[in-house]
Amino acid sequence: MLMKQFRKQYPYVLLGFLLISYSFIAFKPIEKLSLNITARSLQSGKSITAKGEVYYQVSGGLMVTHFTSPVENISITNANGELRIYDPKSNTVMQKQASDFSSENSFFYFFLSNKTQDMGLAAAGYKLKYTRFEDKMVITTWLPPEYLKSEFSKAEIVHENYKPIFMAFYNPKGKPAIKVFYSGYQNVGDISIPLTVTEFQYLAKGDSVITKRTYGNLKTDAEVDIKYLNYKIPANAKVLK
Fold this sequence. Notes:
There is one protein chain. The chain is mainly beta. The protein has one domain: outer membrane lipoprotein receptor (LolB), chain A (Clam), CATH 2.50.20. The chain has helices at 2-19, 107-112, and strands at residues 32-43, 46-57, 62-69, 73-77, 82-87, 92-97, 127-134, 137-143, 154-160, 163-170, 176-188, 191-202, 208-220, 238-240. A 14-stranded mixed β-sheet has the order 7-8-9-10-11-12-13-1-2-3-4-5-6-14, with helices on one face.
């Protein structure tokens, strides 16, 4: 039953793993990136592990995610939020378009655009309220735009050595709704990237979803296999409604 539910719902959830804000710092232009990803999610005592690769191309904000297990699917999105999720086994494709699906919500975009200071909050309409310093950490508090105030009361970002190590969103009652921890930073050329991202999403009735994403095998530009960046969904794929 869990696997059946996973096949139906998790393409969107797995994409969400990638679109959740986390970042790294770049000092020279990079055109393409690729990484391996292992995402482990735990909810109500049930665990699911997904593995695959993610590819990002600056031109057009093209992002392609190829999950290989426990089920295979290929997600393709761009800066305009035009999302397509292809299931090779059934030769079917789901198509959606919304700002939530935009590749500009991904850490790739934040990194390449040097937006690690606000993690995209300013572009989402958040306003910086105040900044405080604790030990070697810089903590900024942000207030949400009017249309998000029913969902969040504020957001916080913690930087250490100019790198984001923690981010949180708080509900209208002031309690954490989402917590994200960034760790395992590794320098690859001019890139500093957190290879471990752990997220806690607090749901109603005290339930929560814990997701740990581990990345590896970072490649850039000429090292990137462009097979999936050039991937074309078969013309005869059935469009799901």
